[in-house]
């Protein structure tokens, strides 16, 4: 029985109300709404869409096709004749309904250094800043449909930049600030941005790191010739020289006249009048690049109406949010979690959202919990990797703080192991707070499998049950046949939900190939999952060539192509292995060119090369010099065998008779530090 069968078979009363409830309070309520969402998605999502303000409310709700074999092919449209503006829904409408909301705090800015002056930004202030910055964009020729690359640290200006794009209908493409010049250049050129928004520096863990400098390098690359304008926020604008750690470095900034502009200068030239652009529900809102199993990063494309309807509803129900509560998500806006659950989900629900610039271990490992007390945070959402790194320290770093304000704790990004779950629950949450372990992806836009607080029992390590509208289905990887739970298989989703990506930017073919060709008629997640007899879902991790390391997705193909750019390398194969702290570790088999000597120095140099080419957050853990790799007779590297060697699970290598030279395997096992 699949979880949906469990749900559908139970006695449910039909949902006959004219609106959705404020909160989901009972399992029966969940069941009747779940039944409505799968049996009559048009009705359910009409009710959900009514939570937003539309210039024109849609009459067409769901119009989707998942089967590539049909004449139409894969196509996803929601609310297609609806007209709305995302920024209006996140800001203006709250104040329009109740002018006093202008005084409510929209963003609490928690700086790395604690000396910053501006901590609390009200809805009225945020709206004014967004309008003014939107006018700066307009002055620089940005129009509806233009792509804007945003390369910023975690500061309030970053939120302003995204919302300003949404206001005027420009498509933002945020690139995480840790990515290298090369990676930014690749992402700028793929979507042909003509403008880049950046900041001179970012400050994290007491260190000042250049961002504009990396853009300068990216823009020297041939593929970035489309960029005409760089708008630069000054990170410490308004601070005195003594408070400003970056003052000295700023003096050596490169400046290209006619291309580079300080935002604070440009803001002097604009007023704060800027009407939101009415957007069709299916107009693109943003592109966000994510790693794929092969080749270039994928430009995941999200649109306007379905995305906002979905992130808004999931935020509301999964955090059981009531305006007035303080919510904090520790994700960077460079990732989907930052888009959906630092900015769009919270603000569309009139939440107070915390923007955190720093890191969990600076100035010490009590940082998160001190912030919780300082701002009286009620809902706290982070990644298992952060939890695991903090639980390695003495519990007193947590227990010396109060944390009484906390009501809900959330996790995302990778499977949370039961020990970490337990520590989060008992030590951080004093066994009092509900934990929501939310499974979802860049591609899904919002939460897919997740508890709804206090509506059903939790099991530490399980994301539990599907959200409204989400029908899960497992498949057997070998037979390609559907599996009935209880079972373990590849996780797919039957039928569309409004928050899902519509395509890859200008590459619909690859979109279909990656997500819809593996199991015709289904969305393929790329994750493995076990569904137990009670319908609870346990995600087992990626089943493709994407690694999830400390919550970051890294395509092994990207690392391989970085390694072979090193002059000494002829070939590379990268696989993951289980790591208790980081979820996975990165193991690189490297074949050197003839005459190149193996050495520790070369290992270090290879690690450096990968970090320079992709980004400092990508770190090979083990470099294994291998004169030979296991290959089929046609020359294809058998990564399946490499994975088994490093896992290590050398007694289950499977059939190696198809290898060109089976003796290679023994050689590799002998030299592998993990096999012994
Ligand atoms: C993994 C992040 C287990 C999964 C929102 C997925 C998880 C990938 C969970 C997407 C979870 C995310 N339990 N695994 N609660 N949440 N994952 O695109 O492998 O950065 O496919 O989106 O992270 O990562 P992405």
Automatic annotation (TrEMBL):
What's an example GO BP annotation here? acetyl-CoA biosynthetic process from acetate
| GO CC annotations, alphabetized | cytosol
Where in this chain does the record put each Acetyl-coenzyme A synthetase N-terminal domain? 30-90
The superkingdom listed in its UniProt entry is Eukaryota
Describe the location of the AMP-dependent synthetase/ligase domain by residue ranges.
Answer: 104-495
UniProt catalytic activity: acetate + ATP + CoA = acetyl-CoA + AMP + diphosphate
EC numbers, comma separated: 6.2.1.1
SUPFAM superfamilies recorded for this chain? Answer: Acetyl-CoA synthetase-like
The AMP-binding enzyme C-terminal domain covers 558-636
Q: What class of enzyme is it?
A: ligase
Q: What is this protein called?
A: Acetyl-coenzyme A synthetase
